[in-house]
Amino acid sequence: MMPILADYALLWPVLVPISAAGLCMMLWRLPAMQRIVHLAALALMFGASLLLLAQVEARGVLAFTFGGWAPPFGISFVADRFGAIMVAVTGVLALAVGIFSLAATHRRHVQNGVYPLLLGMLAAVNGAFLTGDIFNLYVWFEIMLITAMGLLVVDKTRAQLDGALRYAALNLLSTLVFLLAIAILYGVAGTLNMADLARTLPEVGNSTALTISAALFLIGFGIKAGYFPMFFWLPASYHTMSIAVLALFAGLLTKVGVYACFRVFTLLFAGGESLRDVIALMAAGTMLFGVFGAAVQWDVRRILAFHIISQIGYILLGLALGTAAAFAGSIFYIVHHIIVKANLFLIAGAMHRVTGTYDLRRCGGLMRSHPLLALLFAIPALSLAGIPPMSGFWAKFMVIDAAFRANAGWLAAVGLFVGLLTIFSMSKIWIEGFWKPAPFVRHTLHPVPIAMRIAIAGLALITVVIGVFPDALMTYAERAAEILVNPQQYIDATFAGHAPVSGAGGGQ
Amino acid sequence: MNFVYAAGIASIMGVGLYLLLSRHIVRMIYGVMLISATVNLTIFLAGRIGANPPPVMGLGETALAAGSANPLPQALVLTAIVIGFSLVSFVVALALKIYRQADTLDSRDLGAAEALGSAYGQADAASRHSTVKEHAK
Description:
The complex is a heterodimer of chains A (508) and B (137).
Chain A: H1 2-7, H2 12-26, H3 31-59, E1 62-65, E2 76-79, H4 81-101, H5 107-111, H6 114-130, H7 134-152, H8 158-189, H9 194-204, H10 208-225, H11 233-237, H12 243-268, H13 273-295, H14 300-321, H15 324-355, H16 366-369, H17 371-385, H18 391-405, H19 409-435, H20 450-468, H21 470-485, H22 488-495
Antiparallel strand pairs in A: 1-2
Helix pairs in contact in A: 2-3, 2-6, 3-4, 4-6, 4-12, 4-15, 4-20, 6-7, 6-12, 7-8, 7-12, 8-10, 9-22, 10-12, 12-14, 12-15, 13-14, 13-19, 14-15, 14-18, 14-19, 15-17, 15-18, 15-20, 15-21, 17-19, 17-20, 18-19, 18-20, 20-21
Chain B: H1 2-20, H2 25-46, H3 72-102, H4 112-115, H5 122-136
Helix pairs in contact in B: 1-2, 2-3
């Protein structure tokens, strides 16, 4: 039994949620059963992701090609350290949000299929992290998009329908641009397997078609990830979602775009020096405009949605620098960001449960009435702003240190300035929501449900642990970055046990 | 031949992008459909089209005859068509739902998402909401 579990460690993080999604569909009329299946699947997925992390740690890069085909012909799944840590953090976050949603899921959400959609989306997210085939990556992106659009309209309010339309318009375009990039890449290289592409592209040499393909990848993933100047769909739609779904979206979906961007620009277009300057400008713009957008908002969800964008800028900064230290910083940053950002949205949900509003002007006095919630808010808020000893400090430190080492002082300066404005935004939520006296007297004070408290405290604990003991994750990130800089391990693992076959060829 | 094909793809793409920029939701959906069609045609072209024999292997053969057509782009296009179809169906259903609730398909008149949690005061948002309703009537 155990060897099977370990041998197919690569498949469980996708198989578990997707079969649970099917099971939930079959149990459509039994909401209680769906809830049990959903929670059990999240727990199993959490276990599966930890198993994968342990296996990658023990055996190096794992690869599996479906259907018994030799690698460039069959669809491959590959997990290197970067992919494995992303799957692991997805497992942690999904479980935390699953526990939170015990207290936040209404019957109408279940009637509109929130459980199968959530599980389907998680399967697609894990699939995108693990696939080693660029067309397969497109398929996972599309599954993610269709389930995400279903989740966006789970309340069927007018604002949600409106938000979903804005989300759909740009995200449909993004996947089409992504597919166009794949088409051109296939026309040039004649293969779709990423390890095979990494092997053949240096031989093909540089050409206009490849540059266009790289630029299209950057645009396609950039819209998904919320890069400047293509992030406008995000603040227009995210705040309409129901809060547990929103936390999962905020933590995971943009990061899938970022992950794909890293994969493509390290493995396929490693020599894409011409795009580095463009990426650097985009990173600076993403950081600045995200944080400026947040400054004028009063709705907690809107403030946090704009902060997703500004934080994405820091991660992109690592890609713009292109050194091993910068990649390590970005990987650390992604892990920290997923946990912290999702936790802030969960706290916004708890604040809404207590005060009945997301508008900061209408809430207040939470520090006196709910001191524990105030403490739990302070941890991720300080972490997001980069105050030591929270995880955000180390994340920012690694990225900005890498920027100085790569002689990109202006990028580091932008990063530090944006960190200052992040403190401004977080202290705005603190002063308005927690510190100032409540604007009117409330007769009934709602407590924060226990499920919400467990989820928020669990994620806050992870933030503190990463912050106090950053060494383990830092070393891991550095070793993951080595594979990104030198993808030979990734290529070797994909083709291990198979005779080398030349690229499938696109005809004459 | 390839040039004619590419020019055709470019012109359809142009029409699609123009329609995508429209404020009318149905036109926008037409735009997405046209762009998705051009992307599929590009994949097809990337597999090198020409007067090639079909990619069929006889009994007992283990490899395609030299010069036969590339079967992979057809499989990719088929996948992309199915996915595109499902996404367009979803967006059409969304448009229908929006039309039934808001009585308009002009995206300028859809202010519900923008009004939710607006930074510019509750009163502002409320008045904007009512003008939308009046306009729709």
